[in-house]
Amino acid sequence: MADSTIDEDAPILAIAVAAELAGMHPQTLRQYDRLGLVIPARTQGGSRRYSLRHVAQLREVAALSADGMSLPAIARIIELEDQVRRLRREVADLEQRLRDEVDQRRGARVFAAGASGSVVTLRHGTRVRRATEVVLWQPRAPRD
Fold it and tell me: Where are the transmembrane segments (predicted)?
């Protein structure tokens, strides 16, 4: 089955459509592109292509501008929001890699009782010394 989620970053909208969705004149979008506020992707022929995220940014620019914020300040806000979005993706990726590593190692832990009765964690592949240690428990993967 195909994934039905919408890619908000896909550059699919022509400038006229993006301007209509953002409630702006296409010339305003061209000006924002020149100023570096909202930079669309380009086709091989050089035409601008906007994504749904660009349209949301254009609406945000309009709202902030209407509140009296300068265009350089708005550009900085957009830059910081993009940085936060990238960092969140990176954190999510690192968290997933950590979960995968923990899941991989979970089945590899084995506990044993030492000669003095203390609990000893054995590494995967470590042999138990039969005279002094007995394997007590090996955790199972959690149930969903």
Answer: none
Q: Which three-class secondary structure state does DSSP give residue 49?
A: strand
What whole-number distance in Å separates Cα of residue 96 and Cα of residue 90? 10
Q: What is the CA radius of gyration of the chain?
A: 28
- In the chain, what's the furthest Cα-to-Cα distance? 84
> Which one, of 81, 139, 87, lies nearest residue 110 by Cα?
139
We find that the CATH architecture of domain 15-105 is Orthogonal Bundle (1.10)
Element (H, E) at 120: strand 119-122
pLDDT digits (tens, 9 = 90+) for 66-84: 999 999 999 999 899 889 9
Ranges of residues in the chain whose predicted pLDDT is under 50: 1
